[in-house]
Structure formats: structure tokens, C-alpha cells
């Protein structure tokens, strides 16, 4: 009988231990930041003029929230014009490799106030930490800064780099929301939206969710065919142009 009681006691202890672990795990899960997008697909059609993507989330402990939307990496070719013999010509060029094609942030405060410099550097937060610096072998000093600033100006002018952070608005003590604007020329590909819960400049928790920006419909089929069959697409385009010109010629001649 005593052995049975000992076995029962051991089993009860194990059950309570597992329950305790489950409860601790449950608390940890509850304390984690949660967030999701209003849509995981941005469909680009012929009449696409931009879009807005909303993000909703919650945190269960006090702190700040930072959201970063980053587009697929690509290479950017920069050209510099100079006046040569009275004519403006491209006299220098620079290629930035592996640069985010889109970059925007939203936060509950200025990045410098809610994050530490070490946190920003470690997690690629801010324009100074996303790989825009040129290798010394390409350019250094003021020349490298000039090229970098020119790249940022061009990307900001296109709307694909947004210097000012959007506002993260709390709907209560725990719930929050924010919104990102995508321009009409937004690059296609897979985007990643990272949401950070911060306290005292350090990251408490984070979540990342993908966002697909894709051409759909007839435009997508033409785009894919042009990239996969460049030579044939060129021939077809020339043929269509010739036919259109001939039809126009006939129409004007009859007129």
C-alpha cells in the first residue's frame, strides 16, 4: 500500500511539474508581442496607383513598438553627370549591391530615443545600418558619402524610402496599429515586416511576417514572358508597332 502511495505521489508530482512548466510557457507566450497585417498580398494591376497596408498588434507589458517594412534586396546603378565641352554627359557610375528596394519604419517615438545605438546596429535598424555604405575599394570618405546620399535622395524621391517614421497608435493599454503607404512604383517581390517590442532601448520580443507584392492578370503574364523570352518579346513588339503604324497610315490616308 505504501508503495502504491509513493507511486501515486511521484505521478502527482510529475503532473504538477508539467502543469507548472505549461503555465510558465503559457505566461511567456502571453507576454510575447503579437501582430498581423490587414493583407498579405499587394496585387499590382494596370490601374494600380499605390496601396495602404495596415498592421494590428498587441503587447502585454509596457514598452515601445517599432515596425520595419523592408523590400527585397537588389542592386542600384547610380550615374553622375558632368558638363563636358558644353554637353551634360554621364562621367561616373557606382553600383550599390544588395540594397533594400523598399524601407520604411513606424514607431511610438524617434528611433534614437526608443532604441540604443547597439540595438540599431545589431538589428539593421535605420538608414545607417541597412547596407548602404560602400566598400572602401569602391569609394571612401566624402566621395562615398556623396554617392550614398545621392542614392537615398533618389529612393526617397521615388517614395520607396521613407525617412520619417509613421506613427504607431495605441488603441488601449495593449492594442496598437499602424499603416504603411506603398507608392505606385513599389518594387515587386517578398517583403518582410518586423515588429519589435522595446523596453529601455532593448528588444524584448519580435515578430516577422511576409508580404507579397506581385503583378497579377494579363500584365503579369506579359511581364513574365518579356523577362523569360526577351528576344521573342522584342520581335513581337516591333511587329505590333509596324502593324499599328501601317493601320494609322491607312486611316490618315483615307481621311
Automatic annotation (TrEMBL):
<keyword id="KW-1133">Transmembrane helix</keyword>
<dbReference type="Pfam" id="PF09608">
    <property type="entry name" value="Alph_Pro_TM"/>
</dbReference>
<dbReference type="InterPro" id="IPR019088">
    <property type="entry name" value="CHP02186-rel_TM"/>
</dbReference>
<protein>
    <submittedName>
        <fullName>TIGR02186 family protein</fullName>
    </submittedName>
</protein>
<keyword id="KW-0812">Transmembrane</keyword>
<feature type="transmembrane region" description="Helical">
    <location>
        <begin position="231"/>
        <end position="252"/>
    </location>
</feature>
<keyword id="KW-0472">Membrane</keyword>
Amino acid at each position: 500500500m505504501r508503495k502504491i502511495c509513493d507511486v501515486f505521489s511521484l505521478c502527482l508530482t510529475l503532473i504538477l511539474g508539467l502543469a507548472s512548466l505549461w503555465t510558465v510557457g503559457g505566461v511567456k507566450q502571453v507576454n510575447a508581442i503579437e501582430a498581423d497585417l490587414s493583407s498579405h498580398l499587394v496585387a499590382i494591376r494596370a490601374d494600380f496607383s499605390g496601396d495602404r497596408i495596415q498592421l494590428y498588434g498587441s503587447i502585454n507589458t509596457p514598452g515601445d513598438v517599432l515596425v520595419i517594412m523592408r523590400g527585397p534586396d537588389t542592386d542600384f546603378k547610380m550615374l553622375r553627370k558632368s558638363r563636358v565641352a558644353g554637353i551634360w554627359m554621364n562621367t561616373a557610375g557606382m553600383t550599390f549591391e544588395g540594397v533594400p528596394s523598399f524601407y520604411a519604419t513606424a514607431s511610438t517615438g524617434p528611433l534614437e530615443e526608443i532604441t540604443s545605438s547597439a540595438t540599431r546596429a545589431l538589428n539593421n535598424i535605420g538608414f545607417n545600418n541597412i547596407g548602404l555604405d560602400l566598400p572602401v575599394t569602391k569609394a571612401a570618405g566624402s566621395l562615398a558619402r556623396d554617392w550614398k546620399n545621392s542614392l537615398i535622395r533618389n529612393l526617397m524621391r521615388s517614395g520607396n524610402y521613407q525617412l520619417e517614421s509613421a506613427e504607431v497608435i495605441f488603441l488601449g493599454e495593449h492594442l496598437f496599429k499602424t499603416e504603411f503607404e506603398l507608392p505606385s512604383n513599389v518594387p515587386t517581390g517578398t517583403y518582410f515586416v518586423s515588429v519589435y517590442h522595446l523596453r529601455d532601448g532593448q528588444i524584448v520580443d519580435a515578430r516577422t511576417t511576409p508580404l507579397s507584392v506581385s503583378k497579377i492578370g494579363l500584365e503579369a503574364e506579359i511581364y513574365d514572358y518579356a523577362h523569360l523570352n526577351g528576344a521573342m518579346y522584342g520581335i513581337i513588339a516591333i511587329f505590333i508597332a509596324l502593324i499599328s503604324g501601317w493601320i494609322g497610315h491607312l486611316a490618315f490616308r483615307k481621311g
